[in-house]
Amino acid sequence: MLIHPKVHFKPYTHASGGWGSANSVMKILWREQAFAKAPKALLKQNKPDGFACVSCAWAKPGHPHALEFCENGAKATAWELTSKKTDPAFFSNHTLSDLRQWPDYDLEQQGRLTHPMRYDSATDRYRETTWEEAYRDIGAKLKTMEPDSVVFYASGRASLETSFMYQLFARAYGTNNLPDSSNMCHESTSVGLQESIGVPVGTVTLDDFNHTDCLFFFGQNVGSNAPRMLHQLQDVRKRNVPIITFNPLRERGLERFVNPQSPTEMLTPESTVISTQYHQVAIGGDTAAMIGIAKALLELDDQAQRDGGNAILDNDFIARHTEGFEAFALSVRAHHWQHIERKSGLTRGALEAAATTYARSQRVMMIYGMGLTQHRHGVENVQMVVNLLLMRGNIGKPGAGVCPVRGHSNVQGQRTVGITEDPKKVPAELIEQHFGFKVPQQLGLCTVDACEGILTGQVRGFIGLGGNFLRAIPDTSRMEPAWETLELNVQISTKLNRTHLLPAKNTWLLPCLGRIEIDRQNGKEQTYTTEDSTGCIHGWRGNAEPVGPHLRAETSIVAGLALATLPSGHSIDWQAWCDDYSRIRTAIGTIYPAIFHDMESRMAEPGGFHRPIAAAKREWSTKSGKAQFITPVTLNEDDDITPEVVPRDVLQLMTLRSNDQFNTTIYGYEDRFRGISGTREVVFMHLNDIVRLGFEVGERVLITTAVESEVKRQVGPFEIVAYDIPEGCAAAYYPECNSLVPLWHHAERSKVPAAKSVPVKLSSVGNN
Ligand SMILES: Nc1nc2c(c(=O)[nH]1)N[C@H]1C(S)=C(S)[C@@H](COP(=O)(O)OP(=O)(O)OC[C@H]3O[C@@H](n4cnc5c(=O)[nH]c(N)nc54)[C@H](O)[C@@H]3O)O[C@H]1N2
Ligand SMILES: Nc1nc2c(c(=O)[nH]1)N[C@H]1C(S)=C(S)[C@@H](COP(=O)(O)OP(=O)(O)OC[C@H]3O[C@@H](n4cnc5c(=O)[nH]c(N)nc54)[C@H](O)[C@@H]3O)O[C@H]1N2
Ligand SMILES: [Mo]
């Protein structure tokens, strides 16, 4: 057996949370030399008088635990408050060609960016500049460019205040090119839910967890990516509420949990069983699985009618509130069980078991993540969740509803205040009335379109409000050379990443404050706001001293760029807004009064305030005025390869996160729950596939995309790990595998890259 010396694979036998989690937090505090600031900061994390965790978007309770953070939230805090610095001396020691050889982990490990820098092509280095010079030169450059050739990307962390200013800046400049990270993430939700129930966001709040009597979980890895939700799940389980999970992998956080903040749990061998049914659905098999559940429900309902029992369907709700049920039911009945079993990878018995529990429950929530949205049929997956909920009237009553788990901590909020490429989604008239400029009519570019534009040369400039665009997008090895032909690349960032290392003709790196840091403007500490995954809006403030005197707040950087770029004479007083953020909030309230009226007082309430969500009140803002059953057109996860003739050596690859990363930020090489340490260059496969394809466990292989063979997309060598994953499926880490995902391989309608199902082939090293 070939074993790569770096890799250590040992199945993890403990629950999620517990000592493993406490240990992991101590390690990162130590490594980041963050003991001076982090412990004090952690006490304020997600507290009404503190700061919003910079990790996930999960809801922050009004009455938080003494320590309202999780292992990964603590890592994110330590990562931001590190005492290490990437300063001008660092940059003078390294050329960009040198730094491009470094792995993502090493780049961000250098610490926080401290000074505004400008790329100097003569020396291939960043050199220090002043803010004034940077604003002046960027502004001058932007003035010479065609507004629709410039892209204003936002990553999802910036506050509501910054996001609102940023979209105004882009639109006043003359473009709707406002792609964001949700274009790679929950856009399938925004498109799917809008069509089905008339809102682009989920309908549940934290309180629903107190009333629910059944939860479904599709394709979300709660233990790593939204661990604070484990508290709600644990409480729900204490009431004996069933949790039914659909995931190709047996994720530890969905199996067992020990609350690391409970001394009794830490000192006893007790852990809470999370999922009561665990269905290892095939990658991309969810729609088929849900069709199976729907079919079983219809069959149970038929049976009840024959027996004179209670109806299983909520016929009254269906009649009063929905449209399209007949066609949907007809189509579900027409699917044969054999076909459903083949497509979902699950047995009829398993799907009937899920349906029976569903049928017995009165208040059901369905929770999901990237396992549903990042597919060719990501929108249909989301709409199928809604179909199931509608069948039993599970939207718009306590304890029930749809719960997409958003990613970045303010990604939902940035959309609410206008970050979108679609001008129809912003109140253009109000903007014109108050700020005196016309919102451009032309549809802007989403993320995939922006990438196309970079490839074709239509896009000439890029401004990044956070994020690591070039690493997060698909088809990275095709995108990188095209990127270097850009005229302008401006990155507003906290840490060095690969996007900073591929310079355009004019490139700047502008270091900003993180949200944990105290933001002083005009001599006053400022507060800021975010919206979480449950539509709840909170006020926060940073509490750590900034890492250096030259950092500027994101608001102030956006204002600086706007002032240097826009013609004088329009009616936004950027400077006054920066001096006092309550003025930005007043402006937000003027443009979005239904959501943000009286924001200043409401944002300070413990737990914040909820935006109105019509569907949660059974008001349907759809075209028909009713909630829509939308029938999926196919049960195939991917039509790129005709499923009936899939060659036997093609596997469906999902790219996913480890427990030791935040997106492209790699905290370390330890995916504790999956038992991997020392490397991320592994591919998880079923033992039968390994044997069938003639490989060995531990062998190092190249992974090649199996569609569009005229373009070579390949990564590796990666080491094969035998893993509990359905046959025909494989898994490997994001972002290492992003160059395997063709740009066109995205969800229809939402354009979310289908990062969870890429047809691939493996080959032995030296044999391709
Ligand atoms: N610590 C930490 N927290 C994070 C992040 C992070 O990187 N680190 N990222 C943040 C962001 S931006 C986001 S969007 C979220 C992402 O959080 P998640 O939505 O959990 O995203 P992933 O880790 O990519 O994988 C999701 C899960 O989908 C499963 N899956 C894959 N394919 C399928 C499928 O076809 N069907 C089903 N049912 N399941 C499938 C995988 O096994 C995995 O468990 O987390 C946010 N929070
Ligand atoms: N193959 C594959 N690709 C994927 C995914 C996948 O599952 N598989 N997931 C997709 C998803 S869900 C998402 S959301 C995207 C993520 O895409 P992005 O949001 O673009 O990427 P991040 O890795 O979150 O960005 C990290 C960088 O943000 C900067 N940063 C951190 N904090 C701050 C801050 O407070 N302010 C500013 N200005 N900058 C900051 C730091 O410089 C850091 O290097 O990736 C997508 N890409
Ligand atoms: Mo995300």
Automatic annotation (TrEMBL):
Domain Molybdopterin oxidoreductase: 112-429
Cofactor(s), names only, from the UniProt record: Mo-bis(molybdopterin guanine dinucleotide); [4Fe-4S] cluster
Keyword Transmembrane helix part of the UniProt annotation: no
InterPro entries tied to this protein: Asp_de-COase-like_dom_sf, MopB_CT_YdeP, Mopterin_OxRdtase, Mopterin_OxRdtse_a_bac, Prok_molybdopt-oxidoreductase, YdeP_MopB
Pfam families associated with the record: Molybdopterin
Keyword Iron-sulfur: yes
Domain of life the protein comes from: Bacteria
Keywords for this protein: 4Fe-4S, Iron, Iron-sulfur, Metal-binding, Molybdenum, Oxidoreductase
Alphabetized NCBIfam families for the sequence: Fdhalpha-like
Sequence similarity: Belongs to the prokaryotic molybdopterin-containing oxidoreductase family.
Name of protein: FdhF/YdeP family oxidoreductase
UniProt organism field: Pseudomonas nunensis
Organism classification: Bacteria, Pseudomonadati, Pseudomonadota, Gammaproteobacteria, Pseudomonadales
